[in-house]
Specification:
With 137 residues, the chain is of the alpha+beta class. It folds into 2 domains: 45 residues; 70 residues, PH-domain like (Roll). Helix content is 40%, strand content 28%. The chain contains 4 helices and 7 strands. Strands 1-2-3-4 form a 4-stranded antiparallel beta sheet, covered by helices on one side. The protein has a 3-stranded antiparallel beta sheet with strand order 5-6-7. The longest helix has 23 residues.
Length: 137
Amino acid sequence: MTSEIPPRVVIGPVARVGAIEVGVGVVLLAGLTLVDPLGRLLLALGATVVLAVGLRDLFLRPTLVADRDGLVIVDGLARVQARWADVERLRIVTDRRAPLLEVDLGARVVVLGRRRLGAAPYQVLEELEALRTGLGA
């Protein structure tokens, strides 16, 4: 059974993930009044990180967009655009048993996990390779 690969691939977590992260951050901030001063500091730091990641996931979407010409990846807070000729390597690497998609752009290497991709890295790699080699046409 063969499936036709679309000429454009859009990958990213659903908005629900970012909304949940923002909600958890708000709950953590609400807990600031319930702990001692050192606990407030630790809770504020944790809440800030969770809120920042949640807001990034809500507003900097999708994580990866690819078409026949190249791809655009959200890396941290920046969008990185590259033509296929600039992509040196696409591969799966493993970090503590979890597969990650590694996109080597020469001067920059972007590593994306399942949570950021919203799909299995192996599946995303297959779709990207098909577009890169022209099979997605």
